[in-house]
Amino acid sequence: QTVQPATGAAVAETWLPTLQVDTPQQGFDLAIVMARRAVKTTQPDVAVLKAQRPRYAGDAASLIDVSAVAAAWFATIAAANDYWRE
Amino acid sequence: QTVQPATGAAVAETWLPTLQVDTPQQGFDLAIVMARRAVKTTQPDVAVLKAQRPRYAGDAASLIDVSAVAAAWFATIAAANDYWRE
Amino acid sequence: QTVQPATGAAVAETWLPTLQVDTPQQGFDLAIVMARRAVKTTQPDVAVLKAQRPRYAGDAASLIDVSAVAAAWFATIAAANDYWRE
Amino acid sequence: QTVQPATGAAVAETWLPTLQVDTPQQGFDLAIVMARRAVKTTQPDVAVLKAQRPRYAGDAASLIDVSAVAAAWFATIAAANDYWRE
Amino acid sequence: QTVQPATGAAVAETWLPTLQVDTPQQGFDLAIVMARRAVKTTQPDVAVLKAQRPRYAGDAASLIDVSAVAAAWFATIAAANDYWRE
Amino acid sequence: QTVQPATGAAVAETWLPTLQVDTPQQGFDLAIVMARRAVKTTQPDVAVLKAQRPRYAGDAASLIDVSAVAAAWFATIAAANDYWRE
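Above: the input entities. Below: the structure tokens describing the complete assembly.
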């Protein structure tokens, strides 16, 4: 068992200063960060998350759902960056 | 068994005065608040919710779904704040 | 067994005169109303709905889905109110 | 067994002349029509659909999904009507 | 067993020249085409798809999901056509 | 067992320089690329992904979900290209 900071305590740290990033790829990476951060609001124990990974990373239905979640976060980030139009 | 105010009674309290918040991170936090508030419209008994937490917090599929829900609420909040563009 | 008005008959009643409401919280409440109304298009018998409630209200996956549905309805209502920007 | 027109033949009929309707409630009704029409592209036999109804109309998870689908169609219809703003 | 062109080969063919169509109903039909085309990126063998049809076409949960997918594709097509506003 | 670059290492490579593509069909193809890339953030081992393919490619529910995910990525790409309006 690991010792985790309480969710409330973690909120004090600034982890999302802006939605604006330079490139679509950085936006994609931020989407993954946000997707994982949302998971941590419910399961803050990283060790538990890692323990589950082999199972869902080997399950097609879960992986498809992971992509859906990433798409949802990315949609907002892309809009926030005006789709990186030049 | 706990005594809960009826859903109707709870509506009288103001818990969502605005969608405008100062930072993306506050928007993220508000998304979590709204996601949980929506759950309470169906299950107002906090004790029941807490009792379920160990189970779904240890289930990858549920955690992925939690992230999808957070993304959905965040999308609206981010639009409401014009994506915190400067 | 309860006697229910046919779905067709229920449509004659005006239950959704507008999407414009005064506050985000009223918008949230309207989202819940619309979410439930959509359920009634398929299951108009309120008694059947109430009978199922203890089961899904005690099931985390269902509650997460409820929040997703509320988010979807709220997104449209919030846009309809220009996000209650001042 | 009922005789059904082929999907291809059904397309010839005009069932969706416009997305513009007078009121939000008519928009809601149109969302239900479109949701059902989409189902028919995969299962055109109305008798099969009716036979399934008692089962899914008594299943909370299915009913929650029905509401999600209605919300998705309604979102587009509402945008198409500029949210019936006055 | 049928002989299918490889996915890579199929990409060379132009099947989606535009998102602009004349009517909402044509947009609906295009949504179904796109939904099915997306399925083919994962399962290009039409015979396998047809073999599964009786099963999912008789399953309410799958049919509800089909409608959700159609709604998602339609949303983009409708926006691309400015909702066929006159 | 294959040797895979770590997820962290893969990020250094530029795979998403832009969301702007010339045609809707190229946008569709990019949606599939993004959908798969999101899967790889969780399961970077291509061999594991390929091993699962026969199973989910033969499962209607998974295929419907694949289409939903493609629609979600495509929605953002289409907006980024102003829907390829002429």
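Note for the figure: The CA atoms of residues 46 and 55 of chain A lie 15 Å apart.
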